[in-house]
Amino acid sequence: MTARRIERPAADIAQDKANAKSGGATINDIARLAGVSKKTVSRVINRSPLVQVQTRERVEALIREVGYVPDPMARGLAFRKSFLIGMVYDNPNAQYIVNMQGGALESLRGSGFELVVHPCDSKSDDYIAGVRHFVVQQRLHGVILVPRVSEDSALVDMLNEVGVRYARIAAVSLDQPRRMIATNDRLGAIEAANYLESLGHRRIGLITGPQRYLSARERGGGFIAALAKRGIELAPEYVIEGGYTFESGVAGAERLLALPERPTAIFALNDEMAAGVYKAAHRLGLSLPEQLSIVGFDDSPLATRLWPSLTSVRLPIWDMGLHAAAMLLSPEESPREGPLIAPHLVVRESCSSPGRV
Amino acid sequence: MTARRIERPAADIAQDKANAKSGGATINDIARLAGVSKKTVSRVINRSPLVQVQTRERVEALIREVGYVPDPMARGLAFRKSFLIGMVYDNPNAQYIVNMQGGALESLRGSGFELVVHPCDSKSDDYIAGVRHFVVQQRLHGVILVPRVSEDSALVDMLNEVGVRYARIAAVSLDQPRRMIATNDRLGAIEAANYLESLGHRRIGLITGPQRYLSARERGGGFIAALAKRGIELAPEYVIEGGYTFESGVAGAERLLALPERPTAIFALNDEMAAGVYKAAHRLGLSLPEQLSIVGFDDSPLATRLWPSLTSVRLPIWDMGLHAAAMLLSPEESPREGPLIAPHLVVRESCSSPGRV
DNA sequence: CTGAAAGCGCTTACAG
DNA sequence: CTGAAAGCGCTTACAG
């Protein structure tokens, strides 16, 4: 309490506080109660260093006591920028999306920012216009781009043009480090390859994803390279392009399992397709894992529900969302490097050594 | 064009328009261009009937031409209410959440409203305070309450206290019709009961959900009542309380399948638990569906991934989200009745007549 | 049916 | 380190 503050009857102040607490206080209430200008309260809110420690503490105490929270719309209007982070995705994997939302929200908690979701159809040719309208109208503070839209350079060009910050999540770095979360899918595929090789598999089938997906190229490329390094070449007929869907997994497995020399193991580049491999194997009456080892990618809820439970590569999706949001919250000037994200193989019951029958 | 408008050189106006188009026009730009006051533009935006048809059309044409979109933060500040709809949930089923978000967003499309998500932990005792902070700080226009938080009357009391609109989604109506989407889970369970009875099953096991869940009581109650109506009484040992989790499905099925007189069919009140039944059955070497018929509830993605594919009750989740959002957008005065939501059984390969072995 | 003034709750730009 | 004035882009309340 400085002596210079104008003294008011204690009863008046108490009444003021009561009023402020009951019905959403404003910056003016705090200013009056603290005996400072609203600009000073504003400085405290925005963590400006240009406030005396004593003043700051008094104002902060009052803010806490009254339970004052600045109105994001008023702040947003003055800043010309909202306190909203957008999440833009066309990924059909629900668990992936929910985990990513959860991770992002963990970062935003307590920051005054909220998450607004924007699923879209990247195959429609006006989806970029849709995203543009979304980010411009809402004056988003930033957007998180989830694969596969994160790989679309036309989308990113638009965001740069309208001047909206973004954090891109993709299998490898495609942009400045401060705007990227690289998920290093390749490492996970390498681990899968080494695991199957170490179990003794030599005739291995691979069901890839659509080659226009970066993740499919990285996972597939990593797997093939890692096997090659250990002296195993995958003949072309053992590599089948799938569509990241259950049905394409069934179809791919049926082709692989009809080969004269049947593979003893199949790596599917996502769990959906791996589930399709189970179906094809069951239809043929193969016993798992004795007659066929299977590895998936995603470690989706499916993995533990299938029987036998599926060995799969896990991506730390929650953390990816968390880091992406944190990147958007950090000040523009402090270029925050993307964190190191590393997938790892979760071993369950779907693999064994070949010829154990 | 009225004669009273002040005439300006065409070149000036063209320049004005160009400026307005390039960098986010404001209500003032439109007013100047249209030769009216900004209040009139405001009336057009807000669909006030107090505007001459001619004036309205001129202003609307200009708005379209310039691509003007009102700033939601400025509108929100003046209205003391944001253009944000919240979605509050503690449901662990990712597909459920993503579908509901999708349905809600379909309603919001083009309305200027956006969806902000708020997962929470209804077991933590301060989650209501968290939701309160969320809705009050953001001045949400309304919130969609998803089961099971939708069943929490303490949460609803808080929302009424702070005066935030909500739409509750629950198995049966718990509130005024204009605030409820009743999903009639009971009907789906009845259909499952009738289906199993019609196949000839007489010794049937039931794995329920936690009894504190309304959905579990409705589904279980409907199933038991429908069977009773057809002359089948479920002995107590054939009814097991599960926890809506995969593991509890495994455990429940193990108990049921260890009964001296094994059930020929099991109804699990969600697909997670049904997947657990598969696992227990596989472990015992039972062939499906010959030795055991299984029905689930949710029609989750799991249903088609399991082998044999699972017959399950489908709830139109997308539509539930769509109607909930539409309910929140419709004017407060026009009490919009909740729509009739009806679940239905999706028959796949997991059931057969008993004793077909 | 239309508009000028004041205000929503904040911040920026400028002074001191 | 602090504050008074003006402004962000809308709407409400009041006149006419």
Structural class of chain A: alpha/beta
The oligomerization state is: homodimer
Distance between the termini of chain A: 83 Å
- Radius of gyration of chain A equals 27 Å
State the helix count of chain A. 14
CATH architecture of the largest domain in chain A: 3-Layer(aba) Sandwich
Helix content of chain A: 40-55%
Strand order of the largest sheet of chain A: 7-6-8-9-10-11
Largest sheet of chain A: 6 strands, mixed
Within the CATH hierarchy, at the fold level, what is the topology of the largest domain in chain A? Rossmann fold
Which CATH class of the largest domain in chain A? Alpha Beta
How many domains in all of chain A? 3
Based on Cα principal axes, name the global outline of chain A.
Answer: elongated
Number of strands of chain A: 11
The CATH homologous superfamily name of the largest domain in chain A equals: Response regulator
- Considering residues with a beta carbon less than 8 A from a beta carbon on another chain, report the largest interface and each chain's count: A-B, 43 and 43 residues
Keywords (chains A, B): DNA-binding, Transcription, Transcription regulation
Protein name (chains A, B): LacI family DNA-binding transcriptional regulator
Domain HTH lacI-type (chains A, B): 25-79
InterPro entries (chains A, B): HTH_LacI, LacI/GalR-like_sensor, Lambda_DNA-bd_dom_sf, Peripla_BP_I
Q: Mind explaining what this structure looks like?
A:
The first copy, chain A, has 357 residues and is α/β, with parallel strands linked by helices. The first copy, chain A, folds into three domains: 10-70, Orthogonal Bundle (434 Repressor (Amino-terminal Domain)); 77-184 and 318-341, Rossmann fold; 185-314, 3-Layer(aba) Sandwich (Rossmann fold). Helix content of chain A is 45%, strand content 13%. The first copy, chain A, contains 14 helices and eleven strands. In chain A, the strands form two sheets. A six-stranded mixed β-sheet of chain A has the order 7-6-8-9-10-11, with helices on both faces. The longest helix of chain A has 16 residues, at 214-229. Chain A binds chain B through residues 24, 69, 71-74, 76-77, 82, 84, 94-95, 97-99, 101-102, 105, 112, 114-119, 133-134, 136-139, 246, 272, 275, 278-279, 282, 301-302, 304-307, and chain B through 24, 69, 71-74, 76-77, 82, 84, 94-95, 97-99, 101-102, 105, 112, 114-119, 133-134, 136-139, 246, 272, 275, 278-279, 282, 301-302, 304-307. The first copy, chain A, binds a DNA duplex (16 and 16 nucleotides) through α3 and α5. Chains A, B: Keywords: DNA-binding, Transcription, Transcription regulation. Chains A, B: It comes from Tahibacter soli. Chains A, B: This is LacI family DNA-binding transcriptional regulator. Chains A, B: Residues 25-79 form the HTH lacI-type domain. Chains A, B: GO terms for molecular function: DNA-binding transcription factor activity; transcription cis-regulatory region binding.
